[in-house]
């Protein structure tokens, strides 16, 4: 049944035009995005975070491209080690970058088991940046425990790692994870916040991930671009 007002073909045409505008606009700004680096405020600096997905990295070239720190994926769950961790950790250090290490938290493994695994991959290093914990649903196991259980396991991980390292763990909390397991405010740790283009609007952020499409010398393909602020 037809309704009063504009005919259906008109609304279909409008929808098609909108899609075309979005595609054309994206085609215009996307080539610019990988090379975009916003101006730094006082006490801020550029960095990247990497894993085996970036392949072999020329860390000297990275350091020569204005990057002063790197977070390197070390482990995941209770037994998985990133295959590029040793090379990335050594290469970033040899290039003079400040280095941090992070662990991807699994919902299928007790927090204490994951903490001991993480500490076994990289025991505390005095001059390293604070370790980070990656809390995301994407790429995680299929289990979805109760929020109270997940919080307890995360706390168990934090307790062991912070006791060993002597400093607070940095939390990267994905939006979907926070929706199901709200831990940001409750755990009260420095935050690594993902926010496209605009500076984080949350209290306590220490690292801002701008996006994952950065063009950085020494990295074949795109990589996450981060800004760290001191204090």
Set out the fold topology.
Layout: H1 8-29, E1 44-50, H2 59-63, E2 69-76, E3 80-81, H3 85-94, E4 98-104, H4 111-121, E5 132-135, H5 147-165, E6 170-173, H6 175-180, H7 184-187, E7 191-194, E8 205-214, E9 223-229
Parallel strand pairs: 1-2, 2-4, 4-5, 5-6, 6-7, 7-8
Antiparallel strand pairs: 1-9, 2-3, 8-9
Helix pairs in contact: 4-5
User: What is the CATH architecture annotation?
Assistant: Alpha-Beta Barrel
Q: State which percent range the strand residues make up.
A: 15-25%
- In which range does the helix fraction lie? 25-40%
Ends: how far apart? 64 Å
Rounded Rg: 21 Å
- Low-confidence segments, given as residue ranges, are 1-27
- The H-and-E topology, N to C, reads as HEHEEHEHEHEHHEEE
Mean pLDDT: 89
Question: How many domain modules?
Answer: 1
Instruction: Summarize the main sheet.
Output: 8 strands, mixed, barrel
What shape does the CA trace take? Answer: globular
The CATH class assignment is Alpha Beta
Which structural category do the helix and sheet elements fall into? Answer: alpha/beta
- With strands numbered from the N-terminus, the spatial order across the biggest sheet is 1-2-4-5-6-7-8-9
Q: Number of helix segments?
A: 7
């Amino acid at each position: 049944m037809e309704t009063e007002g504009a005919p259906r073909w008109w609304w279909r045409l409008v929808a098609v035009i909108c899609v075309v505008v979005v595609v054309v606009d994206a085609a215009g700004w996307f080539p610019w995005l990988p090379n975009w680096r916003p101006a730094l405020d006082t006490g801020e600096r550029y960095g990247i975070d990497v894993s085996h997905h970036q392949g072999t990295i020329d860390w000297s070239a990275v350091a020569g491209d204005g990057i002063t720190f790197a977070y390197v994926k070390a482990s995941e769950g209770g037994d998985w080690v990133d295959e590029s961790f040793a090379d990335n950790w050594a290469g970033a250090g040899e290039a003079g970058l400040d280095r941090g290490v992070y662990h991807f938290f699994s919902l299928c493994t007790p927090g204490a088991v994951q903490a001991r695994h993480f500490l076994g991959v990289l025991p505390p290093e005095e001059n390293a940046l604070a370790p980070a914990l990656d809390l995301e649903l994407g790429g995680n196991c299929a289990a979805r425990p109760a929020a109270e259980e997940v919080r307890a396991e995360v706390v168990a991980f934090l307790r062991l790692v912070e006791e060993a390292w002597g400093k607070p763990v940095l939390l990267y909390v994905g939006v979907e994870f926070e929706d199901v397991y709200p831990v940001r405010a409750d755990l009260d740790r420095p935050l690594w916040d993902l926010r496209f283009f605009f500076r984080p609007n949350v209290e306590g952020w220490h690292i801002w991930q701008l996006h994952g499409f950065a063009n950085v010398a020494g990295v074949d393909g795109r990589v996450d671009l981060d800004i760290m602020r001191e204090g």
